[in-house]
Amino acid sequence: MTEAILLVGGKGTRLRPLTVHTPKPMVPAAGVPFLTHQLARARAAGVEHIVLATSYLAEVFEPYFGDGSALGLHIEYVTETEPLGTGGAIRNVASRLRSAPDDPVLIFNGDILTGLDIRALVDTHETSGADVSLHLTRVADPRAYGLVPTDPTGRVTAFLEKPQTPEEIVTDQINAGAYVFRRSVIDTIPAGRPVSVERETFPGLLSSGAHLQGMVDSTYWLDLGTPQAFVRGSADLVLGRAPSPAVPGRRGESLVLPTARVAPDAKLTGGTVVGEDAEVGEGARISGSAILSGAVVEPGAVITDSLVGAAARVGARTALSGAVVGDGASVGADNELRDGVRVWCGATLPAGAVRFSSDQ
C-alpha cells in the first residue's frame, strides 16, 4: 500500500482568525504545520505517494513541502478552481493516482488528529474484500455527528443523519474521517461538480449493494475544527497523548523551539509550545497554549488554553483563558479575555480595555 489522498482544501471558517492568512492544515500544531504530522504518520505506515487536494490558499503548500522528499514521500498537488466537496475533491485528483483498479487508496481528511492504526485499516479493507473501508470511532455523545451502524462482522448497514431524539441514537459509532477506497470506486464519483462523500457517495454505494466495511479504532481522535480543539490538539501532541513522529523535540510539559526566548522564571506547562523567534517575558505563566512564531508575551502575562498568533503581542499582566489572538494583533497590558474571545488579525486592544468577557 503506497498511495494516499489528503483533503486539504477547506476554508477553515470555524477556525478564524487562525485561517485568515493560513489554510487550516498549515496552522502550526506542536511547532510544525499540522499537515506535517499527518504526512509523517502516513509515511510511517508505508505510504510513499500522496496527492494533496488543495483549494483555499493553495499556493502555500508546495513552497513548504516541495516534492515531499524531505519526508521520504513523493507529493503531488491538485488545486480545485471551484470547491468540489469531499467526494468531488477525491474524484478531481484521480488522474494522479498510480494504483491498479483493485488496489487500495488511503484517504484522509486534513483536519483530524488521530492515533489510528493505518496499517490495520488497510488490512481490514483487504481481508474483508470491501469496496470502501471506513475508520469509525466511538464517542460519548454522538448527537453532533452522523452515525454509522455496522453488523456483527463490521459491515456498514446505514449512514444516519445527526440524531434529534434519544431513540435515534442507535450506535455510538461515527465516521472518523479516514477511508480506504478500492481504486476503481473512485472513478464512479461524478466528475466536475461538488460531491459530498459523506452525504452522497457513501449512501449511494450502500444502496447499490457495494460492500462498505467499518473498522472501529477508538484510540486518540480529535476534530480540529474549532480554535479550542486546535489548541488542545497541539498540547496533546506536545504531551505525547496524540502520536506523531514529527514533533520537533521531546514530549513533555512544554516545547520551546530553538530560536525562541523564554525568561528563566517563566513557567510553561500543560503541553505549551513556544514557536520560532517568539519571546516570553519574566514571570509569565502559560499552560496548554500555543505561542506562534515571532509572538511576544510580556512579563507577568497569564495564558491558559489559548493561542497567540504569529507576530502578535500580549501585554504585561494580561490574562487569556480559552482565547485566540490573531496574527499581528496586539492586546495591551492589564486586559482579561476569556471563554472563546477572538481578537482579529492586526487588531489593537488598548491597555485595560477589557476585564472579562463571555463566549461570543
From TrEMBL:
Secretion signal, residue range per the UniProt entry: none
Nucleotidyl transferase domain spans which residues?
4-236
* Family matches, as Pfam families: GMPPB_C (PF25087), NTP_transferase (PF00483)
Q: Which residues form the Mannose-1-phosphate guanyltransferase C-terminal domain?
A: 252-333
Per its UniProt record, what InterPro entries does this chain match? GMPPB_C, Mannose-1P_guanyltransferase, NTP_transferase_dom, Nucleotide-diphossugar_trans
Q: What's the superkingdom here?
A: Bacteria
Query: What is stated as this protein's family in its record?
Result: Belongs to the transferase hexapeptide repeat family.
Q: Which PANTHER family does this entry report, sorted A to Z?
A: SUGAR-1-PHOSPHATE GUANYL TRANSFERASE
Q: What is the protein name for this chain?
A: NDP-sugar synthase
